[in-house]
Design a protein that fits this description.
The complex is a heterodimer of chains A (329) and B (122). Chain A has 329 residues and is mainly α. Chain A contains 13 helices and no strands.
């Protein structure tokens, strides 16, 4: 059993505040780091240097960008649907905070430990999609509306293979608790990517699609839709969508780490757990960045029929195979 | 310790504080940012030309059928999670047969949509 913040601090309110502070700290550092990493990785893959001027080797570039965004004027266009437009960044942002709190960073380190953790993470992801559509519809901008439509269609299509591949793992562990899934891999003595390679590949593809990243970045295809659903957001409104996007990359990678890569497990003492956990998570994120500069963007109908005609049948077949193997063995 | 807080109450707290923390960066710039307002500042952005009409019009969304299939699938997949939690715990072969039947019927939905030409772009 893990020690909760409440037992540590002796008060539920303090526990909540400490938890939120921890999550916000992690997500902020993650967003700052990932934007820098994204620019550096993409630059290196194109034989460029990327940011070099601000701070040592450009490390403070994102901080400078953030300060610029804070000082920008917030423009809300004339013809918007006011409540939807102004609420959208919050609806995208708040669930990200809650779902990050669910992850076990080591045997003893988890902020919220619930037995339906896995389903809750996906449920919070679903709320974010509503926020995206609110922003796109509320903007009353044709590009934003088309981007939001594409985003929703893509997210709901890839949600199903995502859930089905996660389900194959739940079938093996008989638990939806993220900590217990990790422990089960420790007891089995191997990471589930070894016994569920098909589910792992499906999960990775679906996760890239869920985060609207290349080659599935049709919702924000800048050459045709300007910026997709957040075209009409300026300054911090835009920054919130960006923040949520990079946090979602972290979340899907953390789920992937828990399901397939053994979570916090690794050589060395148990104290190193969180380091192993983050190392595995950021390896998945690096792969996602790598994809972006390797694969061209898919056409929208290719993207949709790929989800329904290949991903879902394969993941259903994988699920049945898992069920049969579990019975026979 | 007298007052305890369950994990779900804690999560609701996370959501509420998330809204507060999200609102702060949206309000602060309103105090420090410039307030320039020109003739076209508040116009809807459409590549610099004058906006043509509202975007809240009726148009054909070619992939609305995906949304319909999605609703069926999502609910079906959620029914599978409780089965997965108790799978292979003393049901002999019954649970395997039932899961296979359930997934088989689920797959028929895809075949039906496929034959109806939902996956083709028109």
């Amino acid at each position: 059993m893990s020690v909760t913040f409440e037992q540590l601090l002796g008060s539920p309110l303090l526990a909540l505040l400490a938890g939120v502070a921890a999550v916000m700290g992690l997500l902020t550092v993650n967003a700052l780091f990932l934007i820098y990493a994204e620019r550096k990785v993409s630059a290196r893959m194109q034989f460029r240097l990327g940011p070099t001027e601000v701070g040592f080797a450009g490390t403070l570039q994102t901080v400078a960008d953030m300060l610029k965004l804070i000082s920008k004027q917030i423009i809300s266009p004339k013809h918007i649907d006011k409540p939807l437009y102004h609420l959208a960044p919050l609806v995208v942002f708040a669930p990200v905070i809650a779902s990050t709190a669910l992850f076990p960073f080591s045997e003893a380190w988890s902020i919220v430990d619930v037995n339906i953790g896995l389903v809750l993470v996906f449920a919070f992801g679903g709320i974010g999609i509503i926020g995206i559509f609110m922003g796109g519809w509320g903007s009353n901008n044709k590009y934003a509306l088309l981007g939001a439509m594409r985003s929703v269609a893509q997210n709901i299509s890839y949600e199903i293979p995502l859930l089905l591949s996660a389900l194959s793992v739940v079938l093996m562990t008989q638990s939806m608790n993220l900590r217990e899934i990790t422990v089960a891999q420790g007891e089995a003595g191997f990471w589930f990517i070894l016994v569920q390679p098909v589910a792992a590949v499906i999960y990775l593809i679906a996760a890239v699609a869920e985060t609207n990243r290349a080659p599935f970045d049709i919702p924000e295809a800048e050459s045709e839709l300007i910026a997709g659903f957040h075209t009409e957001y300026s300054g911090m409104g835009f920054a919130m969508f960006f923040f949520a996007e990079y946090s979602n990359m972290l979340i899907v990678s953390m789920v992937g780490t828990v399901l397939f890569l053994g979570g916090w497990s690794g050589p060395g003492p148990a104290v190193l757990g969180p380091i192993w956990f983050l190392a595995k998570t950021y390896s998945i994120i690096f792969m996602m960045m790598w994809f972006r500069w390797t694969f061209p963007r898919l056409r929208f109908d290719q993207l949709m029929s790929f989800a329904w005609a290949i991903m879902i049948p394969v993941s259903i077949a994988n699920l049945i195979a898992t069920a049969v193997v579990l019975k026979v063995v | 310790m007298e007052a305890t807080i369950g994990p779900y109450q804690l999560l609701i707290g996370f959501l509420l504080l998330g809204i507060v923390l999200g609102a702060a960066p949206l309000i602060i710039p309103r105090l420090i940012s410039p307030r320039y307002s020109g003739a076209k500042t508040d116009e809807t952005y459409e590549c610099g030309v004058d906006t043509i009409g509202s975007s809240w019009i009726r148009f054909s969304v070619s992939f609305y059928l995906f949304a319909l299939i999605f609703v069926a699938f999502e609910v079906d997949v959620l029914y599978l999670f409780p089965i997965a939690v108790v799978y292979d715990q003393g049901f002999e072969w019954r649970d395997l047969v039932e899961v296979t039947m359930f997934l088989g019927i689920l797959t028929l939905g895809i075949f039906y949509a496929w034959r109806r030409g939902v996956f083709e772009w028109r």
